[in-house]
Design brief:
- It comes from Nicotiana tabacum.
- There is one protein chain.
- The chain has about 300 residues and is mainly α.
- The protein has helices at about 10-15, 50-65, 70-80, 90-95, 105-120, 125-135, 155-165, 170-175, 185-210, 215-225, 235-255, 260-275, 280-295.
- It starts with 7 loop residues before the first helix and ends in an 11-residue tail after the last helix.
- The chain has 13 helices and no strands.
């Protein structure tokens, strides 16, 4: 399990960060143009494009008695049913035209996409880019509470990341309480799902950091929680996997600036101790050693030898 505690500093970072992130000239990602007009069928024949199918589903949803919120969420669930990199531009276009016209709809849509992303970590780079583009294209919505910051795609997304990160401990504790023999199978399934969501969340946070939607301050808090959550006992298996995954993903970026490099030196001192900790399984020790070797090789992966 991931041993986490509610961290006010983490929340502080989320609240204090600017709502609109100006990153167009810094990330190196070109901004795709969204197609707001309906896409016509392929004039050359062939199967109907996915966007047309989504529009047909949208028309059917409008004819039903669903509320606007439920209608949009139903359409989004259909769009997310089979995401692929080849359909990325269509996916973005479909989400824009579904009718995200209020804060409640925005929260529902972002949560649906987030839940999909953390359960399919292979597509996290695609979903992170999707969140990045939606955050630029969707307008901010006023908060229900007076005096509060406006609600943006990024703010809702980071709130989901934080809740998943900080709530892992409680979920694992609930799973441990399932001690009856007839609950063993259910408990194992629940533990696997919790682990998948936690590692998927870490992967997504790393991808969002690459797009500057997550700051170094948040990454620093996450690393401290993962590496130093319990000084009296060995780190949990999930914590070790998560920290290794995070450094494999964004370690090179963190090592570029002097302020981050000082912190990384401290973190890697802890990793060196973990690499020889007999309480860890050999598999986890090898995983830690791979991260140490990656940094010593200037973050260039060594070629895999095929015998």
């Amino acid at each position: 399990m991931i041993c986490l505690k509610s961290n006010k500093n983490f929340l502080y970072c989320l609240v204090k960060m600017p709502i609109e992130v100006q990153v167009q000239s810094q990330t190196g990602f070109s901004e795709p143009q969204f197609a707001r007009t309906p896409v016509s069928p392929n004039p050359g024949g062939g199967p109907t494009p996915a966007l047309i199918k989504a529009e047909l589903a949208s028309s059917a949803a409008r004819r039903s008695n669903l509320s606007d919120d439920d209608r949009v969420l139903k359409i989004v669930m259909g769009i997310l049913n089979n995401p692929t990199l080849k359909r990325f531009d269509l996916l973005k276009s479909q989400l824009i035209i579904t009718g995200i016209t209020s804060a409640d709809i925005l929260k529902g849509v972002v949560t649906l996409i987030f839940d999909k992303a953390v359960l399919e970590p292979t597509f996290c780079p695609m979903f992170a880019q999707l969140f990045f583009d939606l955050n630029k294209k969707l307008p901010p919505f006023p908060s229900d509470e007076s005096g509060r910051r406006k609600i943006t795609c990024r703010r809702v997304l980071l709130d989901n990341c934080q809740k998943t990160f900080e709530g892992a401990d409680n979920l694992q504790e609930e799973a441990r309480q399932m001690t009856a023999q007839e609950q063993e199978s259910e408990r194992k399934d629940k533990e696997k799902l919790i682990k998948l969501r936690n590692l998927g969340n870490i992967r997504l946070i790393g991808e969002l950091f690459k797009l500057r939607m997550v700051t170094k301050n948040i990454i620093r808090i996450i690393v401290k929680e993962l590496l130093m959550s319990d000084h009296k006992c060995c780190l949990s298996e999930e914590n070790v996997e998560a920290i290794c995954q995070l450094f494999n993903n964004i370690g090179k970026l963190l090592d570029k600036s002097q302020d981050s490099r000082d912190n990384i030196d401290v973190y890697f001192d802890s990793l060196k101790k973990l690499s020889t900790n007999p309480q860890l399984t050999p598999q986890l020790r090898f995983m830690v050693c791979d991260v140490l070797n990656l940094r010593s090789n200037n973050w260039v992966p060594k070629p895999i030898l095929i015998l």
